């Protein structure tokens, strides 16, 4: 039986992971759960899965959670708070696998700690890899940790790679990656109307059930830009070898094009339990709980090139990875700040890429030689982005 820590247990990936784990109680034991604010759901999860450690955002939340579990069957559960506690949860001796599902830059430090500790890292957090890039991949290599991608697209690519493939290594016969995207809710919206998009419209994804931030990233296609950067690192390929393909049905989750002309595609219903189960069962397979794909209901599959006028965030992601160094971290930080401002109605939907590009242009790229440099640039990008937002909102 393997011990698992779930970073971000109350988010959509965390909930789906616990659903899959519950189907295989003889294979996995939940050792640690972490959450930000949803301590009511966290309590339900603890009562069902009985972790030995729980980590929440801050000490006030920890105190509130200790009150909640008093007198329950999990009253003895250890409850900690803060960033150091997240790293502790991810590196416990009896944790074999870490589901890294904390959204945003907050997931970087505990995910990197898991990598350095040699854990099997199930990577659902784009930002950890986008921000720290080669530092993260070097930590995986140095510790002998196993890195398995959870994003549906990267997991699909992984499944289409040769047998015994290991992330971080170039598959010599692979010519390019076809990274699929749904196109989000505004794929066919007149470009001139995007300025009027509301947060409610932006989070209403047509195919996937995701959190607010990720849903907005899908609407701008920044999620695909971050995934492109991630794919370069995970599969050791150049940006020009990653081609984004809009596929609105979300049946094909990505493809790998080989030098002999073969294109392998991974297909399935849009259910995150499929890649989660694949990674948990690796190198075998087991039941995920997802409905089997009925190919006769698919009827048709469409493919189109992304319009960079409609989706400028995708262009900015290619610009960031080509600049290299700390620029992907700047891109990510500026996007987090801009999306938050949009969700709080401080800026317009079309301001998001403008804020990101102005931030990138204002910050000099540096070599990402250390985590300290990356975090400093992340902090600087947030300061610059907030200043630009204040100008726009004022």
TrEMBL record:
Binding site for Mn(2+): 151, 153, 227
Binding site for NADPH: 10-13, 38, 125, 127, 211
Domain 1-deoxy-D-xylulose 5-phosphate reductoisomerase C-terminal: 147-235
Binding site for 1-deoxy-D-xylulose 5-phosphate: 126, 152-153, 182, 205, 218, 223-224, 227
Top-level class of the enzyme under EC nomenclature: oxidoreductase
Claim: Cell cycle is one of the keywords in the record: no
Residues of the DXP reductoisomerase C-terminal domain: 267-383
Classification via PANTHER family: 1-DEOXY-D-XYLULOSE 5-PHOSPHATE REDUCTOISOMERASE, 1-DEOXY-D-XYLULOSE 5-PHOSPHATE REDUCTOISOMERASE, CHLOROPLASTIC
Name of this chain's protein: 1-deoxy-D-xylulose 5-phosphate reductoisomerase
Function: Catalyzes the NADPH-dependent rearrangement and reduction of 1-deoxy-D-xylulose-5-phosphate (DXP) to 2-C-methyl-D-erythritol 4-phosphate (MEP).
Entry superkingdom: Bacteria
Key words of the record: Isomerase, Isoprene biosynthesis, Magnesium, Manganese, Metal-binding, NADP, Oxidoreductase
């Amino acid at each position: 039986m393997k011990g698992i820590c779930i970073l971000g247990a109350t988010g959509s990936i965390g909930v789906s992971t616990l659903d899959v784990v519950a189907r295989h109680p003889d294979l996995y034991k939940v050792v640690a759960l972490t959450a930000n604010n949803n301590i009511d759901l966290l309590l339900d999860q603890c009562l069902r899965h009985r972790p030995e450690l729980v980590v929440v955002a801050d000490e006030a939340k920890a105190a509130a959670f200790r009150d909640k579990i008093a007198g329950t069957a999990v009253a003895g559960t250890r409850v900690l708070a803060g960033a150091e506690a997240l790293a502790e949860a991810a590196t416990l001796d009896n944790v074999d696998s870490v589901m890294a599902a904390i959204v945003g830059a907050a997931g970087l430090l505990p995910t990197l700690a898991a990598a350095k500790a040699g854990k099997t890292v199930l990577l659902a957090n784009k930002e950890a890899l986008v921000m720290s890039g080669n530092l993260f991949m070097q930590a995986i290599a140095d510790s002998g940790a196993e890195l398995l991608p959870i994003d549906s697209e990267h997991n699909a690519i992984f499944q289409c790679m040769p047998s015994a493939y290991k992330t971080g290594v170039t598959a010599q016969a692979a010519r390019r990656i076809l990274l699929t995207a749904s196109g989000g809710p505004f794929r066919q919206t007149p470009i001139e109307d995007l300025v009027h998009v509301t947060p409610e419209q932006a989070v209403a994804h047509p195919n996937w059930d995701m959190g607010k931030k990720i849903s907005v990233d899908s609407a701008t296609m920044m999620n695909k830009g971050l995934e492109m950067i991630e794919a370069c690192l995970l599969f050791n390929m150049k940006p020009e070898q990653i081609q984004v393909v809009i596929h609105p049905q979300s049946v094909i989750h990505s493809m790998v094009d080989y030098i002999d002309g073969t294109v392998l595609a991974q297909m399935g219903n849009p259910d995150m339990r499929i890649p989660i189960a694949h990674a948990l069962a690796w190198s075998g397979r087991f039941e995920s709980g997802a409905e089997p794909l009925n190919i006769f209901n698919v009827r048709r599959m469409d493919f189109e090139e992304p319009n960079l006028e409609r989706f400028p965030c995708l262009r900015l992601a290619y610009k960031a990875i080509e600049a290299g160094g700390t620029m992907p971290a700047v891109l990510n930080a500026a996007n987090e700040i801009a999306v938050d401002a949009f969700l709080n109605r401080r800026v317009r939907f079309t301001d998001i890429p403008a804020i990101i590009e102005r931030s990138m242009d204002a910050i000099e790229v540096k070599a990402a030689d250390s985590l300290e440099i990356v975090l400093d640039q992340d902090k600087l990008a947030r300061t610059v982005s907030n200043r630009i937002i204040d100008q726009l909102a004022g």
